[in-house]
């Protein structure tokens, strides 16, 4: 395989193949997240062409976000059972077919089925647990940095493609924009097929930073039901206070990012006369600042108390959301919001993953984090629908943004209670 020859070539240059795997995973998560974020550009064109209300479209997008999160714990089990490479290709295939079919939709139920159910299922297979799995398997050193990089891909992909898609949509329509998105996904699928490997041992390597002093543990046998493995892990984790604190704070994280700003910032800006392309550019700028913030968060999570990092992340995000309605939606006000909010867009993920691994142990960390991430997407789905209904009923998004800001302040206080209980033997954990 190409990966074998490339790994040997890199080894002669003292470059670990794990960085190639991380790069392919980065691209896959980037374009998958782009498929998650793209519908925010299409809300106004769909309303104009089909007459669907904001609440109707938001219900489909909320379903997509819910499935994206609820798939996470099962995706972790599927990654263990069938391998990272196979699941990446399956996910990219489902998303591509669903997007292409959506160019022919004419009824709302088709939007709900394709953008809500199918894309939610497909992108859920490459949720943040993919990055956590790759980082855990391939890196003993620089793990926090790699988690930060892959998390940045998942967050930035939801934003960075928006100006391109917005330009295509305004000039030639939303259908060609979807085709362009599918072309990017196809490139990622080809690279994954050629270069991706499941574990370092597949090409005779150890994880980066493993000096070989300890014997390599064999891969866990894929015994038992995938569903039962995910559910029993949830049962054990749910007995701990730390799990529920992480779940609730990540619910708030999703409600204040994916479900609110990603989907509704462009329509909100339109209410104040900001053109769609300019609003999409604002989201893309936030995505660029997110790369700095999330990678920096990964670096910090290897060095500082993760609870206090999360305290500052949630607190500053809450203040930025409370500030937005008072920005007057001027260039300077929106730019200030983009910088502070963008740096904190999803910087919460690396410390949350670290706390999960410290508290519940490396064997179950990916599945437990999958359930925590399900909380994130439940929050995202709630905010996506609530904001759409709020806009339809009150003709303003202010209530939704104020609510999200207040919830972030609550999360900042709540996270300080995480990790203060003794680990349970059932989860073989170390205290956070």
Short description:
This protein is an all-alpha fold and 432 residues long. The protein has helices spanning 2-12, 18-37, 39-50, 54-70, 72-82, 84-102, 108-124, 128-138, 143-160, 162-172, 174-195, 226-237, 241-255, 258-271, 276-301, 306-323, 331-343, 349-360, 365-394, 398-414.
Describe this structure as you would to a colleague.
By secondary structure, this protein is mostly helical. The protein has helices spanning 2-12, 18-37, 39-50, 54-70, 72-82, 84-102, 108-124, 128-138, 143-160, 162-172, 174-195, 226-237, 241-255, 258-271, 276-301, 306-323, 331-343, 349-360, 365-394, 398-414. Helix 4 packs parallel to helix 7, helix 8 (128-138) packs antiparallel against helix 9 (143-160) and helix 15 (276-301) packs parallel to helix 17. The longest helix is centred in the last third of the chain and has 30 residues, at 365-394. The radius of gyration is 21 Å and the shape is globular. The two termini are 41 Å apart. The relative contact order is 0.16.
